[in-house]
Amino acid sequence: MTQIQEIVNNSAAITHLTGASNYTWVHFLSEPQVLLSKPLTYFESQLPSYVRIHKTSLINPAYIQRIQPPKRAKSPGTIVLKSGEQLPISRRRWLELADLLTVAQQNEKPEDVLATKVPELENGQLEEELIQSEQAMPLSKQWLFAFCQDEKRRTKISQGIHEKWPHYAIRFFDNGTSLIEKMIGTATNDLPTLVLLDVRKVGWAAMNTLESIKSNKLFCRIPTVIFIRELAGSDVEACYAAGANSVVRQSSDETFDDVVDRIYRYWLNFAALPANLRSNGTGTLIK
């Protein structure tokens, strides 16, 4: 019996599955997640009792702890699993699944539902930080977008831009959804020259953000670098399969500023970029 067959046969232990390109992460309540080389659609056909709440998420209803309806018309709903993980319900699927998901919630006490507030970041609200002011930048400024939740690492990322690349500005996002929404609403000429994804572990959020960038015909040309602090299994292969341009294993905060500097020097100075992404500052680019 193959590993995939064993996992499917032991489906009661699975809390949810998340897809990334032709790979699927299988998540368990008390065991480490497993990366398998099968698309999410395969598992959807093998696990008919599971519910597809998003194009990248398939959940086991037995592990639903709480359901958060959309707060606004254009916001996704949210499911909180017993593991504590929070997953978005796509707007298109919410109306189809509302009744089904409510049934799974009926055994939960009302006071438990109200006791824990779902963080607003899961509702796709834009949380961004402008590191360089508009007045300090030349008219021809270019942007870097970065998904990073660690304040110390944010500081090092922004310091590198301030000190050596003053013709760039950097915009931070607290979640991948906000980053993608900003890119979608940005004019072509104002798209970032470089995207940085800084994560502790490779999981659904990072892979979904990476895949969203690289599956878009306009965004796929933008160099995307992912920093990983805790590598496991086939993380590197999965990131490259999803379209990452560079995967950097970086566990030490003490050397992080040096690593970031090398990334900047390569992608902003030496690498040949598409015409609309080229620096118009002092950096020298290969054409």
From TrEMBL:
Domain of life: Bacteria
Single GO MF annotation: DNA binding
Gene3D superfamilies linked to this entry: 3.40.50.2300, LytTr DNA-binding domain
HTH LytTR-type domain mapped to chain residues: 33-103
InterPro entries found in the cross-reference section: CheY-like_superfamily (IPR011006), LytTR_DNA-bd_dom (IPR007492)
Coiled-coil region list: none
Protein name in the entry: LytTR family transcriptional regulator
Annotated organism of origin: Spirosoma terrae
